[in-house]
From TrEMBL:
Membrane topology: Multi-pass membrane protein
Protein name: Energy-coupling factor transport system permease protein
First-listed, main subcellular location of the protein, grouped into a coarse class: membrane
PANTHER family for the chain: SLL0384 PROTEIN
Annotated transmembrane regions: 12-34, 54-73, 85-106, 211-233
Domain of life: Bacteria
Species this protein is from: Ruminococcus flavefaciens
């Protein structure tokens, strides 16, 4: 599989484009086709990066929600289960594309590359540092939650011993304290590296837009234009 490495600026443009498309309700087949296309592209990029498990999970969740919305849910559906199913499928179909794109960006972008891209775009340090901390925060939280799970398994505790209150005590409370600690540590690490210093920083990463970046920007820009035209100028 050929690895496609994109510039962080291209990835940010992808996030903005996908976010705009998913925030507008899709009705016609063309609008749904554009939304599905911009969802599949980040999934394929995850595959090229070797993130097969993430790509598979996203494909299953998104595909299942679309199939349920299309064939299994109708306006005449009633009952609590149908209401829950409609809500779940609607949320997944509406917001998962942006989440997939954001996950792709977080998992495939180094902090140094991201900060270099922010500097080239002349983004204020306050914004770029905050985004850099957020990009490291969620993967770190995932690792921390896995560590908590392993610790509970070593103690023979599964899902809080079958009690909801114990699950909160054994898993959620340690995770909350870990979130606070991790946030402080990441912020301190950013300051220690001089990210907030009033000087021009150097970077070992030489960012340069390649053909793949221009192609991807063109695809998403055209998708947004077609989507807007189909939505508002029919």
């Amino acid at each position: 599989m050929i690895k496609i490495s994109l510039d962080p600026r291209t990835k940010l443009f992808m996030i903005f484009a996908v976010s705009f498309i998913v925030m507008v309700n899709a009705i016609t087949p063309l609008e749904w086709g554009i939304r599905i296309m911009v969802t599949l592209i980040p999934i394929l990029l995850l595959v090229t990066e070797g993130k097969y498990a993430s790509a598979f999970r996203f494909t299953v969740f998104y595909g299942a929600s679309l199939l349920l919305l299309k064939y299994c849910i109708s306006e005449s559906s009633t009952g609590i289960f149908s209401a829950i199913l409609v809500g779940y499928c609607g949320i997944v179909a509406q917001f998962l594309p942006a989440m997939i794109t954001a996950w792709y960006v977080i998992r495939t972008t180094k902090i140094g590359e991201f900060m270099s891209a922010m500097q080239k775009m002349h983004v204020p340090d306050g914004i770029s540092i905050s985004l850099a901390v957020v990009m490291r925060f969620f993967p770190t939280i995932k690792e921390e939650y896995s560590s908590i799970n392993d610790a509970m398994k070593m103690r023979g505790i599964s899902l809080g011993g079958g009690k909801v209150t114990k699950m909160i005590e054994y898993r959620m409370i340690p995770l909350m304290f870990s979130c606070i600690s991790i946030g402080e540590e990441l912020s301190a690490a950013a300051v220690t590296r001089g990210l907030g210093a009033p000087v021009k920083r150097t970077s070992p990463y030489e960012l340069k837009m390649k053909a793949a970046d221009f192609i991807m920007i063109g695809i998403f820009a055209v998708s947004v234009i077609i989507f807007i035209t189909a939505k508002y100028f029919r």
